[in-house]
Amino acid sequence: MSRTVFCQNLQKEAEGLGFQLYPGEIGKRIFDNISKEAWGLWQKKQTMLINEKKMNMMNPDDRAFLETAMVAYLFEGKEPDIEGYTPEKK
């Protein structure tokens, strides 16, 4: 059975994530307040960021940068700065 959350990113009721995909407090906040749809949108942007900036996920600085970008995107509606990518206008 799927669960519904009020997605803070999309500002609507939507299907929630099946389980907590990210560790710690931020992960709990995402699980409670972010929909599966918004998480999927972030995953695409995260992949673009990792590739564009040639990030290494073993590097704590790269992980911290991504986490900051993720929280800004999911909870504050801030698009990550991805070279050559223009977000669709809502």
TrEMBL record:
GO molecular function, one term: iron ion binding
Biological processes per GO annotation: cellular response to oxidative stress
Keyword Iron: yes
Keywords: Iron
SUPFAM superfamilies the record matches: YggX-like
Protein function: Could be a mediator in iron transactions between iron acquisition and iron-requiring processes, such as synthesis and/or repair of Fe-S clusters in biosynthetic enzymes. Necessary to maintain high levels of aconitase under oxidative stress.
Similarity annotation: Belongs to the Fe(2+)-trafficking protein family.
NCBIfam families to which the protein is assigned, alphabetical: PRK05408.1 (NF003817)
Name this polypeptide is given: Probable Fe(2+)-trafficking protein
Organism of this sequence: Cognaticolwellia beringensis
Taxonomic path: Bacteria, Pseudomonadati, Pseudomonadota, Gammaproteobacteria, Alteromonadales
